[in-house]
Amino acid sequence: MKFVPLLLLFLIINFGGLAIGNWFMGNGATSAWYTNLNKAPWTPPGWVFGVAWTLIMLCFSVYLAHLFKNYSSPNLIVIFAFQVLLNVSWNYLFFNQQLVLPALIVLVLLTVVILFFFFTYTMGSLSTWRYLLIPYIIWLCIATSLNFYVLLNN
């Protein structure tokens, strides 16, 4: 498959996943539960989350388009689908169900999946394109630290 159709497909899936995750989180950051939590001092302002996820999903979609253009296997599709499931489920677990520990486990698993992409698919041009995963990896580290702080301090 060619790059542009793949890019459009992944943009739709990734931003669709963000929309579903947002829907699953209910009142999210404006809920009484979240606003009353002891949050980490390094918790960014709310607008940063939207900017970060937009950048992450743009970069991730470009990376995936290159990845799937060069490799296509049922295993790759399953790993990607698992990543989408993890990404969407965190919002539901953390905000909607207030299950901080399971949400933390989801973040750790999601980080492992993204690191798997980063370290496994490194041949040819993907050795360069994989650096588009760096914003995702950094954000997952930040999110994990925030989630862990909430777990320990509430």
UniProtKB/TrEMBL annotation:
Gene3D superfamilies: TspO/MBR protein. InterPro entries: TspO/MBR-related_sf, TspO_MBR. The chain crosses the membrane at residues 47-68, 75-93, 99-119, 131-152. The keyword Kinase does not apply. CDD domains: TSPO_MBR (cd15904). It is found in: Membrane. The keyword Transmembrane helix applies. It comes from the Bacteria. Belongs to the TspO/BZRP family. This is TspO/MBR family protein. It comes from Bizionia sediminis.
